[in-house]
Amino acid sequence: MIFDILTIFPQLPSSVLAEGILGKAVKEGKVTVRVINLRDYTTDKHQVTDDRPYGGGEGMVMKPEPIYQAIQAMKAEDAGTRVVLLSPQGRLYTQAVAREMSTYNHLFIICGRYEGIDERILHFVDDEISIGDYVLSGGELAALVLIESTSRLLPGVLGSPDSAARDSFMDGLLKYPQFTRPQVWQELEVPSVLLSGDHEKIALWRRKEALKQTLLKRPDMLKTANLSDGDRRLLEEIERERKPKAG
Ligand code: ADE
After folding, report:
1. Three-state secondary-structure class, residue 207
2. Given 39, 167, 207, 218, which residue is catalytic?
3. Region(s) of the chain under CATH 1.10.1270.20
4. Prediction pTM value
């Protein structure tokens, strides 16, 4: 999959793209990330990418023309490129949106800056995405969040093909808790079922714990999670265990 990042800060993404799982995916050619300098698409001597807002007010607005030219140049190379604008006004990014992104071959990601982008650019954008209800100074970190979370879902990027499937959010639940050695740490013990070697029991325990984590920490997610009859029975069990015993 190809990701293009259009930015006025082309140095910014480099360390994230060189390290960890994403760095490995880039090195192995499973993911290609190209950073495009927006200033290369300006035509004036000073390579200006912003201007004062019509109507007055604070800050600067990104000019539409250099962004448009960059989009056109990319579309000439690959007409199927999906153009994504990152902004706080976009639809909210979730694991489901990450899954959707992973179905495209080529994303062209526009990072906004300053007080925003001239609204008319939206006519040339396929999707506007926000990574959360807070404001960043620019879209670069959001672009990296999108690239990192989408890349994990591509075949061969994670060590084991089903580790992505076990991630939090994949089936609408938080992930079950994990433990490693030592077995007792700070007088806290690893749940004994995990030492039992009984894979069926362990799977059931993990499902129940995933349901419990979600119920306690993100009950809103249970409303839309894909729950089986077995899950509902486990939830009832969790509720019963949470209630103080009578008498
Ligand atoms: N740019 C500034 N804030 C943003 C956000 N929350 N999501 C995506 N892009 C942004």
Report:
1. helix
2. 167
3. 168-242
4. 0.92
